Amino acid sequence: MMTPRKLTRWIGPVILVLIMFLASGCIQNLGSQGSSQPTPTLMPTLAAATKVTYTVTRGSISDEIKFDGRVVPVTQQDLFFKVGGRVRKVYVAEGDTVKAGQVLADLTQVDDLESQQASSQLNLRRAQIQVDEAQNELDLFKLTTPRWQTGYDQQLAIKTSQLELAKIGLEDASMGVQDASKSIADASIIAPFDGQLLSFSLQEGDSVDAYKSVAVVADVTKLEISADVPSTSLSKLSTGMPVSISNVFQEGQVIQGTIRRIPYVLGTSSLSSSTNSTTTTEDTTTRISLPANLDGSGLKLGSAVQLVVVLQKKDNVLLLPTQALRTFEGRNFVLVKNGAIQQRVDVKLGIQSDTEVEILDGLTAGQVVIAP
């Protein structure tokens, strides 16, 4: 049997061997784990971006104003009652063709007004008879009464006065007829000229206000273009300028027109009565005359059009795309490519279009400009 002293001597070396073995295994394991890490991939170097360039060329360029418009009648008018009331009768409908002087609608008070008008016409007839009688009496007195007869002058004066009074009565009766006719007209919608009703918003029994537009009549046989031109461009236009007109829905068809009217006065005006008022905006549209023959143009009332006015045009000039320009503190310049060198060059500009600009000074044809 092994004594405790001998057992101690044997255990010590064994433990030392085990510790060395374990330490050796851990070191190998750590080395194995370190060598298994993935190798990092190198990012490729980005290629330098290529600058866009433009070449100075020769060509034509125009300074143009472009705007939209619509085909409208040359003559059209809003219609309204001059007094308020309730609609008695409607005689037409929207789209109808009407004649000048035709009654389109009237108000209920027209019944009483027509009675007044009939009475006034009777008074006028009576007054005319009285004038005729007074004139006949005066003429007969002059023919049958000697001048030397006593009281001749006094009788002549009396009969002359009676004729004058009869004429005053006739004038008063005539004014009564005119007043009645005007009152009926104020309570009626009457066509001012031959044309077509573009709009008509009345029904029998409707309540309407004085001077409120209820219809639009137009002469559809004569058409033109109406356009709202921006104020920044309006000052560049003048009457008589030619205009190219394109039908929006018929590409390739272009006809020529002429500026007929430019709105010089802008503002509003008001029409008022004792009981109500309405504000009417002045027409601020630019009007362009159309050729007499529109056959083949596809244009008709209401057609949308695109309009171009050429203010000036130049041929065989130096041109550069507008995106090639650079600006700094109000100065226009470009970067010109000269081999490997980039040179800053100030330029003087002429006509500018939507896509190109005329170069008056600083560049020559064929030079290459580097984009900003």
Verbal overview:
This protein has 372 residues and is of the alpha+beta class. It folds into 3 domains: 166 residues, Elongation Factor Tu (Ef-tu), domain 3 (Beta Barrel); 64 residues, RNA polymerase II/Efflux pump adaptor protein, barrel-sandwich hybrid domain (OB fold (Dihydrolipoamide Acetyltransferase, E2P), Beta Barrel), CATH 2.40.50.100; 77 residues. It contains 4 helices and 23 strands. A 6-stranded antiparallel beta barrel has the order 2-11-16-13-12-17. Strand 18 and strand 19 form a beta hairpin. About 7% of the residues have low confidence.
* Molecular shape: elongated
- Give the biggest beta sheet: 6 strands, antiparallel, barrel
- Output the structural class: alpha+beta
Can you write the helix and strand succession as a string?
A: HEEEEEEHHEEEEEHEEEEEEEEEEEE
CATH class of the largest domain: Mainly Beta
CATH topology name of the largest domain: Elongation Factor Tu (Ef-tu), domain 3
- Total number of helices: 4
**What average pLDDT do the residues reach?**
85
Domains, number: 3
Second-tier CATH architecture of the largest domain: Beta Barrel
Tell me the Rg in angstroms.
Answer: 49 Å
Low-confidence stretches: 26-36, 265-280
